[in-house]
């Protein structure tokens, strides 16, 4: 039945396009109708049923010993291998079997190779990805990774496994997206793995505000800029509690340039589209003293783009060195978030600014050299060769590299020409015993706190808040990664690239990174808020959440006798401190106007609202419309400026603070009217505008979609009936949200639960494509079974794959 529903939905959404393609040349975006409907090579060849899979014996001489993968009733593989390399081989094989097109297209999008399969329409995007240096960064990372025999072996084994599956395919077996786009999968290589890691750097640590902040400071003047853009929210509850004392002597900074001497001017627009500001996550761990069962509990829910196929792939992996369960990224080996019998770990994004822009002082019109400290330096020219489907010749694009990094734009007609990007993700990792992949191998096999602490030494980028709990009742959190050593305010604005003093001063030593172990309050947590209180001795800036962390810390401090169900409920909690902070101020200002709107029925609903963004509630929709309208009214000048340049807008918390403490501030006065408006008038005008919108449920207002990666509606789950809010723990937004929810109680045996919105298969015609979307929407969890052996009776296998070295 699923295949029939899918097929008719596909006809409805793409039928006209397909009919128009009856005589398309090979390789057009959609196939001819006959090819698509062919029972031998088209869609029906890809349709699967849950009971389709028989047990199989597979022979691969690359393996060192016989291994097995059993698949439970949800299609989750449990891999049992005799070595780490064999486990990586099998994981690569299964990832490719279930998520091959996702793996392929993710890497193409990252390193600028979409045009090879999509033609001219993605050429400019590919050029930009090359000019951003993502391929260069992947190559730099891979050099170091392959110098580690341990990691090189795992990388090669994973690629061999993926390619063993790819090589078994005929065109009839290709995933449906390859057929729709008319191209064949290519071999999976170590560079693909490194490129995938760079895609995470792009998503998690490429945000920057240098250009819009520089513009705002130039337009507003330094005094007003400081009023509107303070760096520290006084209500913030940092990741590392403010009672923690720093037991190290910070490195001295030998400063030869500070403040304005490092700044460049004349910026206009950000050189490329920034990753979504909605990417965030929650994690926490509570000690045994706070739980009902006397066992610590760890929770993690990373908030990433909601898409199909899903971001994550659930798996258990057992070898003589580890037995772990969790989620992995299709395309790379290991388990990123998970647990074993002794400990559990999870991650959230740190958010420190590790990408700065430098204005280049060219030494000649040809731009073959530039000046630093009065001396000329030659650029390094890299010719990027981009193959384009439908073209006889590739595009060749020359990118100039400086000591700072690539010059993303050098066309004088482009508003952001002649700026170079200094980005941590470009760096070759520092010499160390192991690198990124070794981090997760060690966590998977970790026995306790010391193993966790040792494993984190290998991680550099993107910086993550690694949370930890162990059966021995240790809990910890570490703000972990390679973080630049900067002077005060450095990197907050566009820098002067003609001065070496504008550069980073090194990196914060690993031993000085913010961390806490077994705090007295009995819990650790992070939700992308600031890492520390202002007394941390090293300067950093970045993008930080102002509400989720405060709320989670408040709730955890209040809770005792905590159960697994309590932790699930906190992950699913849709209450937010943002309306708790803002709504009383809005209502007080409204009431001071004596407007009859204060007695409006919809406003009465707001007065009685509990700040919970439930799916059926109308109050959340009115609050959001009112708040957004008030913000837009207050900062109307910014809307005018945005027509010609990009300007940083004040944060929501600061807007609320100004409403409450300075309602007569000049920022509330509309420049387009002769009257002098105050916050009261702004709030009243905004409410009138908000009430023009008809009442609507929060789910309909928010309109959450889980779209297919190729934006094919028939392969998507649209208009989900779900609550949640970006500034609540249950941070479900229109297309971002909790991509994996996990709760692990570390008792005598782990009691673990999890869910993600998708399924193991990337095949839209499979029963395993999206079966967990509805449970995810409804707040349900699946029991996560960490099996002792392939014959463990805890699960009844749906089918088994036996991997043999010979017949």
From TrEMBL:
Protein name: Penicillin acylase family protein
GO biological process: antibiotic biosynthetic process
UniProt-annotated binding residues for Ca(2+): 353, 356
Cofactor binding note from Swiss-Prot or TrEMBL: Binds 1 Ca(2+) ion per dimer.
Entry superkingdom: Bacteria
Residues forming the catalytic site: 281 (nucleophile)
Coiled coil ranges: none
Keywords assigned: Calcium, Hydrolase, Metal-binding, Zymogen
């Amino acid at each position: 039945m699923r295949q029939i529903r899918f097929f008719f939905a596909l006809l409805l959404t793409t039928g006209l396009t397909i009919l128009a393609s009856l005589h398309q040349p090979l390789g057009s975006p959609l196939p001819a109708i006959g090819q698509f409907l062919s029972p031998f090579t088209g869609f029906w060849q890809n349709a699967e049923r849950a009971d389709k899979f028989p047990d199989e014996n597979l022979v691969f001489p690359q393996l060192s010993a016989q291994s097995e993968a059993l698949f439970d009733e949800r299609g989750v593989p449990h891999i049992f291998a005799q070595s780490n390399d064999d486990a990586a081989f099998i994981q690569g094989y299964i990832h490719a079997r279930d998520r091959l097109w996702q793996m392929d297209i993710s890497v193409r999008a990252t390193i600028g190779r979409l045009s090879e399969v999509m033609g001219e329409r993605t050429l400019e995007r590919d050029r930009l990805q090359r000019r951003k240096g993502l391929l260069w960064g992947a190559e730099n990372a891979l050099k170091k990774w392959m110098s580690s025999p341990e990691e090189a072996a795992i990388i090669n084994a994973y690629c061999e496994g993926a390619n063993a599956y790819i090589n078994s395919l005929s065109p009839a077996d290709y995933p449906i997206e390859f057929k729709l786009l008319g191209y064949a999968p290519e071999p999976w290589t170590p560079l693909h793995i490194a490129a995938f890691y760079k895609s995470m750097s792009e998503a998690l640590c490429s945000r920057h505000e240098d250009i819009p902040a520089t513009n705002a400071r130039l337009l507003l003047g330094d005094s007003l800029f400081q009023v509107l853009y303070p760096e520290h929210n006084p209500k913030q509850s940092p990741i590392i509690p403010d009672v923690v004392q720093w037991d190290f002597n910070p490195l001295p900074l030998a400063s030869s340039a500070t403040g304005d001497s490092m700044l460049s001017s004349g910026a206009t627009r950000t050189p490329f589209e920034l990753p979504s500001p909605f990417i965030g996550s929650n994690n926490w761990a509570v000690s045994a003293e706070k739980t009902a069962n006397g066992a610590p509990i760890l929770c993690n829910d990373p908030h990433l783009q909601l898409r199909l196929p899903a971001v994550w792939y659930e798996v258990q992996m057992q070898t003589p060195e580890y037995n772990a369960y969790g989620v992995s990224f299709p395309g790379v080996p290991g388990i990123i978030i998970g647990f074993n019998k002794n400990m559990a770990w999870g991650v959230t994004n740190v958010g420190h600014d590790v990408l700065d822009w430098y204005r280049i002082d060219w030494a000649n019109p040809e731009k073959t050299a530039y000046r630093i400290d009065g001396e000329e330096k030659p650029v390094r020219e890299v010719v990027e060769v981009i193959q384009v489907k439908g073209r006889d010749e590739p595009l060749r694009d020359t990118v100039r590299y400086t000591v700072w990094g690539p010059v993303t734009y050098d066309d004088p007609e482009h508003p952001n020409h002649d700026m170079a990007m200094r980005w941590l993700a470009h760096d070759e990792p520092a010499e160390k015993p192991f690198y990124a992949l070794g981090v997760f191998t060690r966590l998977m096999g970790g026995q306790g706190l010391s193993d966790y602490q040792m494993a984190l030494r290998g991680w550099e980028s993107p910086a993550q808040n690694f949370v930890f709990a162990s059966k021995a009742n240790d809990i910890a959190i570490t703000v972990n990664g390679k973080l630049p050593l900067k002077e005060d305010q450095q990197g907050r604005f566009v820098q002067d690239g003609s001065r070496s003093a504008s550069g980073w001063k090194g990196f914060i030593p690993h031993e000085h990174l913010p961390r806490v172990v077994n705090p007295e309050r009995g819990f650790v947590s992070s939700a992308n808020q600031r890492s520390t209180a202002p007394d941390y001795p090293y300067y950093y800036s970045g993008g930080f959440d102002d509400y989720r962390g405060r709320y989670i810390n408040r709730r955890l401090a209040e809770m005792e006798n905590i159960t697994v169900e309590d932790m699930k409920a906190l992950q699913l909690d849709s209450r937010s401190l943002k309306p708790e902070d803002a709504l009383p101020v809005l209502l007080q200002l409204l009431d001071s106007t004596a407007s009859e709107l204060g007695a409006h029925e919809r406003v009465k609903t707001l007065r009685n609202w509990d700040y919970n963004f439930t799916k059926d509630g109308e109050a959340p929709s009115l609050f959001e419309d009112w708040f957004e309208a008030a913000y837009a009214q207050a900062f109307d000048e910014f809307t005018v400026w945005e027509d010609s340049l990009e300007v940083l807008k004040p944060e929501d918390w600061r807007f609320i603070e100004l409403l409450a403490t300075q309602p007569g501030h000049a920022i509330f006065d509309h420049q387009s009217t002769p009257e002098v408006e105050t916050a009261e008038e702004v709030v009243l005008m905004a409410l009138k505008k908000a009430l023009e919108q008809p009442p609507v449920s929060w789910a309909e207002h928010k309109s959450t979609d889980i779209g297919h990666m190729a934006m094919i509606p028939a392969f998507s789950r649209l208009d989900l009936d779900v609550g949640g809010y970006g500034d609540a723990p249950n941070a479900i937004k229109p297309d971002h949200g909790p991509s994996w929810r996990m709760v692990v109680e570390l008792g005598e045996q782990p009691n673990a639960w999890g869910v993600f919105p998708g399924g193991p298969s990337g095949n839209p015609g499979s029963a395993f494509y999206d079966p967990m979307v509805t449970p995810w929407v409804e707040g349900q969890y699946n029991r996560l079974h960490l099996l002792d052996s392939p014959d463990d009776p805890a699960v009844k296998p749906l089918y088994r794959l036996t991997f043999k070295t010979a017949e």
